[in-house]
Specification:
mainly beta; hydrolase; four-stranded antiparallel β-sheet; Neuraminidase
């Protein structure tokens, strides 16, 4: 018997779904099957975004304090931190091609800013 679950911040690309649950980022195939945890930090995360080619995922995490944006290969490997803004409203907005990630913050500390990061 399948147990009901929850997910937040879903993002689709092709046949892949990324989402947040239990304070981590997860991935699952849209065709059905088992979801896999991509992070194991047990800290608040949000806004996962798959790259257009489906090989990388970016998300916001409190891994090292305030929300910052990280990126990692979808098939494993360490995450790389992209921002050091110190603002809890920092988040990835989406990708511009496979190698540029658009990131925004609109909180009182960082002010309003939007950046494009080459990844």
């Amino acid at each position: 018997m399948a147990l009901p679950g929850y997910l937040r911040h879903p993002h689709l690309r092709g046949d892949t779904l990324v989402f947040t649950a239990e304070d981590d980022v997860w991935t699952a195939p849209l065709t059905g099957g088992r979801a896999h945890r991509l992070t194991a930090d047990a800290v608040p995360v949000r806004s996962p975004r798959l790259s257009p080619d489906g090989t990388r995922v970016a998300w916001a995490s409190r891994r090292e304090g305030p929300m910052e944006v990280l990126v990692a290969d979808l098939d494993g490997g360490p995450a790389r931190r992209l921002t050091w803004w110190g603002d809890d409203r920092t988040r990835p907005c989406g990708w511009d091609g496979d190698d540029v990630l658009v990131v925004a913050a609109d909180g009182p500390y960082a002010g309003r800013r939007t950046w494009a990061h080459a990844v």
